[in-house]
C-alpha cells in the first residue's frame, strides 16, 4: 500500500472536518497524522490487520483519548479482525499476481472526548490501492 497516499487521504479527511493537520514519522510503524481544533485533539494512522501493534497504539493513545478504529467508514471500539485480515491477504495476493488490487485499511484513531469521529468523512481512506 502506498503509505504516502494513505497518509494524504487521512490528512484530507481531518482537514475537511476543520482540523489543522500535521504528519510525523513513527518508524517502523509508518506515519501518524495529528489533527487539532478548538475542542478536538486526535491522531490517526494505519493499523495492520494482524493486530500486533495494539498495545503500543493503546499506550500512545492514553495521552489523547480512547483508541478507536475506522474500517470501511464505520467506527469501532475494538479493531475488526476477521474480514479485514481475509481482505488483506486476498488483495495482497492479487497485487502480487499483478491484478488490480485495493486494500481496505483499518485506521487507528485516538481522539479527545469532544471529537466526533462519526462526523468525519473517512471515504478517502476506506479503499486504497496497493
Task: List the defining traits of the structure above.
4 helices, 130 residues
Structure commentary:
This protein is an alpha+beta fold and 130 residues long. The protein is built from 4 helices and 8 strands; from the N terminus they run αβββαββαββαβ. The strands form 2 sheets. It has a 6-stranded antiparallel beta sheet. It is globular, with a radius of gyration of 14 Å. 31% of the residues are buried.
Question: Summed up, what is this model?
Answer:
The protein has 130 residues and is α+β, with helices and mostly antiparallel strands. The chain has 4 helices and 8 strands, in the order αβββαββαββαβ.
- Principal-axis shape equals globular
Structural class: alpha+beta
Compute the number of helices: 4
Rg measurement, Å: 14 Å
Query: If strands are numbered along the chain, what order do they take across the biggest sheet?
Result: 1-2-3-7-4-5
Amino acid at each position: 500500500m502506498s503509505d504516502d497516499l494513505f497518509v494524504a487521504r487521512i490528512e484530507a479527511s481531518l482537514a475537511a472536518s476543520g482540523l489543522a493537520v500535521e504528519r510525523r514519522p513513527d518508524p517502523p510503524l509508518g506515519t501518524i497524522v495529528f489533527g487539532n481544533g478548538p475542542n478536538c485533539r486526535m491522531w490517526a494512522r494505519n493499523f495492520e490487520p494482524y493486530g500486533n501493534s495494539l498495545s503500543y497504539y493503546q499506550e500512545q493513545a492514553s495521552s489523547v483519548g480512547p483508541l478507536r478504529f475506522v474500517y470501511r467508514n464505520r467506527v469501532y471500539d475494538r479493531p475488526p479482525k476477521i474480514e479485514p485480515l481475509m481482505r488483506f491477504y486476498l488483495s495482497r495476493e492479487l497485487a502480487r499476481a499483478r491484478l488490480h488490487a485495493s486494500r481496505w485499511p483499518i485506521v487507528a484513531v485516538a481522539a479527545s472526548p469532544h471529537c466526533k469521529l462519526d462526523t468525519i468523512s473517512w471515504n478517502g481512506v476506506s479503499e486504497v490501492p496497493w
